[in-house]
Design a protein that fits this description.
By secondary structure, this protein is mostly beta strands. The protein is built from no helices and 10 strands. It is globular.
Length: about 130
Amino acid sequence: QGPLTESGGGLVHTGGSLRLACTATGRTAGNFAMAWYRQTPGQERIFVAGINLIGASPHYADSVKGRFTISRERGKNTVFLQMTDPKPEDTAAYFCNICNGPVSTMCIRARDTREVWGQGTLVTVSS
């Protein structure tokens, strides 16, 4: 098992909901912001949502704003992504990582993260 473990993916229909979880082991993620990213085949990994080290100031990509909610317990190494009203275009592999700083705006680019990437969790949205 690597330092990052994502879970909770699966098949969901439009109008449904899904909750993803990510746990970071080893490095103290509680000192940094954490973020979720997603990737489809042949595309770059892109930022979805991030949250700062105390579980405040969530930041979202425009494509998911108002539909997804990121959360974490203050100082904990686990972050969640609640997906509501998912759309087929949300279909992707979802990954999490630890940001290179205390606020999630510091890791909008996937390369500005600290850990080796995990296996991700696949989300498939069916209409």
